[in-house]
Amino acid sequence: MDATLKILPVFLVILAGIGGKRLGLLPDTFQGPANRLVYYVAIPCLLFLKVEQAPFREILRPGWIAAACGATVVLWSSSILLSGRLGLARDSRGSFVQCSIHANLGYIGLAAAFYGLGERGFQAASVFAPFFMLTNNGLSVLAMGRFGSSGARSAGQLLRVLLLHPVILASFAGLFWSWTGWGVHPVAAEALGILAGMALPLALLLIGAGLRLDSLERIRAAAWITATKTLALPALGALLLTWAGADGVDRAAAVLLLSAPSATISLIMAREMGGDPELASTAVTVSTLASAATLTLWLGLLA
Questions:
Q1: CATH number for the segment(s) 3-302
Q2: DSSP per residue over 151-211, as a string?
Q3: Which among 90, 149, 172, 239 would be 20 to 30 A from 83, CA to CA?
Q4: Which candidate, 133, 146, 132, places its Cα nearest to that of 97?
Q5: Is residue 21 within a helix (H) or strand (E), and if so which, with residue range?
């Protein structure tokens, strides 16, 4: 299959989630528990298994990780300046900056790497992912603490949550197991594999069901966010990764993660830290829809 077509099934499943929501098959009462199941159980199991099986000493390159995370820091700084030039209100600036760099890695980024680049690509993405998540969440907390009306009261709590992030813990646990060479008992591996099997399909259905297509506001700011998140950030990341010596599937996996749309948790953080929930919701929806084209673009260029 052509590389640019490999990513399309991801968005067909997201469309199925939109249809399931409208048909009443994925009601709000189902989405909450299912999202927690994916977030706390299925994806951590998947990441642990894939990272544990990865050739850790071969694919962990601190210089590559630093280059990719450095691209996020640069775009975070640029978004602060851009939000001021656009004349956004203080609370909107916090959500603008956060949505411009905070990627939906767990649901869309990893799915794109798995279906677009295969097993080896997913392993590479799983090594980058925890470091990206630490960077994304840390910079998001800083942005919301600076511009959000209640950031000062919530930043400490969010930092504690960050340290216990289930995806980050699972990824680093997998790295540790791979490094030690302990291996996983076949019975435990089979059980983890069964749980992991539902992670990506269910996550994509939930993304579709959670999109709000009936209340799109703040389109102009959301368009800037989408361009930054899905085009400028991965372009800078690809440039820095190439300069650092990364190529092939490792570079492609990192760029696909960087080009993932704005994270759905941006809306939660906007509500908790005094940001702009309407802008965050619009940015998540617009960037997710646009990523059908931009993820395909980056996969075609780099795969």
A1: 1.20.1530.20
A2: HHHHHHHHHHHHHT-HHHHHHHHHHHHHHHT----HHHHHHHHHHHTTHHHHHHHHHHHH-
A3: 239
A4: 146
A5: helix 8-22
